[in-house]
Design goal:
By secondary structure, the protein is α+β, with helices and mostly antiparallel strands. It folds into 2 domains: 282 residues, Orthogonal Bundle (2-methylcitrate dehydratase PrpD), CATH 1.10.4100; 140 residues, 2-methylcitrate dehydratase PrpD (60s Ribosomal Protein L30, Chain: A, 2-Layer Sandwich), CATH 3.30.1330.120. Helix content is 43%, strand content 7%. It is built from 20 helices and 6 strands. A 4-stranded mixed β-sheet has the order 4-3-5-6. A two-stranded antiparallel sheet has the order 1-2. Helix 2 packs across helix 4, helix 2 runs parallel beside helix 18 and helix 4 runs antiparallel to helix 9. Monomer.
Length: 508
């Protein structure tokens, strides 16, 4: 049975025992030797495939090229065998924290992997690159890797259920640093003392403002989770060397809750598995069929359906306005409620456009589909009829859709809304959608064959056919992989793919 842990600020003179601190309770979950259930193992395999899919599609994109170059400038450290970098032959190894960095950027760059939304946002698949990097460096087997991944998901999703970061303008990767550190702790079989120190350090070093997801969104959006993963690896290294971290990091008088979140009077209730309870949180996450912010997934599905059924809607001359009635999160993060004029700017960055539901809805409506590259092309964004339609799309806050967004009942939890389209002939078209087609409760829930199809689609331009089959064969045997096989759990680009892009020089 899940245990709900109350968390609040404590004055220094209260001397909160370490066993009552959230970082320690996270560590207790990490060290629990509970077995991994078969369906959890199956979903972890899906997520490993999903991460490799989106990493393959991003191998030649500028942030990924830069991060890879940085990683390759840091050879494997003395303490282990080193870790692989996506795109590069597995014989070339780098230090694990830098592999976590490069691979984390590749996984996040296209905003195209799994998600969990509750009090906070998250992409829990971001836990996999740092945990896998440490597994390769230390010679861990597939079973240990699987256990580490399950912990990473469990901790991040537990924190996301309870603690809102964005409300206080803190970026959501502040939940990722602790979860990745805990996952690495499980992987390595560390003590609660070492894990709690690593969790505290990882949180302390990964709290940053949400400006990275506001206004003109920069390439740092992909780097932010990679930085958290890298920080987690480094935090574990320090903890293993016997070094301590700020404590209590959540509950302290000058800690995260008191000064970065709800303040000294705030109270949070964090749900974590009870001792002996299986780690199943990964089953509550969901992936993306489309390369866009998760809250746009359902809207893309609705728009592409409407565009196919009512092609006249593609012409801005036939449309007076489109109002998307939706949740608070969608309205203020990717909708017109954000107040960001950049969300209507045809020259905006890709990172900005994938956080603009007015743009996304207009393009999906006109194209009756969505493409991870073509839908963001500058010439696509600048098309006059698209700009005209795009600027007729606004969002509106809807209390019922907000309630459903926060519902704990999976049957009514929703990430969509209601579209009201006022037509030039004075008629109105109303259509709604609750969840994306690929959602577990959607029209076409993603299953293993869908993950494999997504991988093939995104990998075929950059991987040889034999490499695609090699990786899929290895990934689907995750729980039984030997250390030598875990060391090969990466993707290698076709000859010439990486050489075709300029590798930037920096400091290293």
């Amino acid at each position: 049975m899940t245990v709900v842990h109350p968390v609040r600020t404590h004055r220094s003179e209260e001397r909160l025992p370490r066993e009552e601190q959230l970082a320690w309770k996270i560590a207790e979950v990490a060290v629990d030797p509970v077995e991994i259930e078969p369906e959890v193992a199956e979903m972890a395999i899906n997520r490993v495939i999903d991460n490799a899919s989106v990493a393959a599609a991003s191998l030649t994109r500028s942030p990924v090229v830069s991060a890879r170059a940085q990683a390759l400038d840091h050879p494997a450290s003395r303490g282990g065998a080193g870790a692989t970098v996506f795109g590069v032959a597995p014989g070339t190894r780098t230090s694990p924290e830098w592999a976590a960095w490069a691979n984390g950027v590749a996984v996040r760059e296209l905003d195209y992997h799994d998600t969990f939304l509750a009090a906070e946002y998250s992409h829990p698949g971001d836990n996999i690159p740092p945990i896998l990097a440490v597994a390769q460096h230390t010679g861990s087997d597939g079973r240990s890797l699987l256990r580490g991944i399950a912990t990473g998901y469990e901790i991040q999703i537990g924190l996301v259920r309870a603690i809102s970061l964005h409300r206080h303008k803190i970026d959501h990767v502040a939940h990722l640093g602790p979860s990745a550190a805990a996952g690495i702790g499980t992987l390595l079989g560390l003590s609660p003392e070492a894990i709690s120190q690593a969790v505290s350090q990882a949180l302390h070093t990964t709290t940053s403002t949400r400006q990275s997801r506001k206004g003109e969104i920069s390439t740092w959006k992909a780097y932010a989770p990679a930085f958290a993963g890298k920080a987690a690896v480094e935090a574990v290294d320090r903890a293993l060397r016997g070094q301590t971290s700020p404590a209590p990091i959540y509950e302290g008088e000058d800690g995260v809750i008191a000064w970065l979140l709800g303040g000294p009077e705030a109270r949070y209730e964090v749900p974590l598995p009870a001792p002996g309870e299986a780690k199943r949180a990964i089953l509550d996450s969901y992936t993306k069929e489309h390369s866009a912010e998760y809250q746009a997934q359902a809207w893309i599905d609705l728009a592409r359906r409407l565009g196919a059924e009512r092609p006249e809607l593609r012409d801005p001359a036939n449309v007076r306005s489109i109002v998307l009635h939706t949740s608070h999160h969608t309205h203020v993060v990717i909708g017109s409620g954000s107040g960001d004029p950049q969300k209507y700017d045809p020259t905006a960055s890709r990172e900005t456009l994938d956080h603009s539901i007015p743009y996304i809805f207009a393009v999906a409506l006109q194209d009756s589909g969505w493409h991870h590259v073509d839908s963001y092309a500058p010439e696509r964004a600048a098309r006059p009829d698209t700009v005209a339609l795009w600027r007729k799309v606004t969002t509106a806050l809807d209390d019922e859709w907000t309630r459903r967004y926060h519902s704990e009942d999976p049957a009514e939890k929703a990430f969509g809304g209601r579209a009201e389209i006022a037509l030039a002939d004075d008629s109105t078209l109303v259509a709604e959608i609750a969840v994306a087609d690929a959602h577990p409760l959607g029209a076409r829930p993603f299953a293993r064959e869908d993950y494999i199809r997504k991988f093939r689609l995104l990998a075929e331009p950059v991987l040889e056919p034999g490499e695609i089959e090699r990786f899929l064969g290895l990934a689907q045997r995750l729980p039984e992989l030997s250390p030598a096989e875990v060391a090969q759990l990466t993707i290698v680009a076709k000859p010439g793919v990486l050489d075709a892009v300029r590798s930037p020089r920096g400091l290293f």
